[in-house]
Specification:
144 residues, mainly alpha
Length: 144
Amino acid sequence: MRFITRFYEMTRPLALMRQTREVAQIIYGMPRLQQRELATLAQQEIDIAAEQPVPHLHGSKSVSEDRPWGDAAELALSRARSNVAQLRNRGLALWLATVFHETRDAPQSSMQSVHREVLGFLGLLKGTYGKRDTSSNVFSDRVA
């Protein structure tokens, strides 16, 4: 049993990195307005999860004894693949919250790398990091 647990711990960062690449494609393909809405939802989910006794298990339907994490990230990613904008945003918000808490204090450098990616997504969504969309700026069309 201990071997299986260790094996899962070693492969978890690989799964999260794969999921991170998929989430990046979804987020970068979203219009700016939806990104702002997602930022609000993600912050709410992070706050709700932080109130739980084990924050990274927030949203999990099942928890296995041989894995120290739940299935919330996988469930959230399946929702994020939806064509329905509200379902996609809810899934992305839950994924960001779950992975944020799961990777926050992780000792492995690969998990810390995933955490930095999640922080980058949150910064991009809030408009404090990454490319800025100047086309939505009211003042950009003015002539000085």
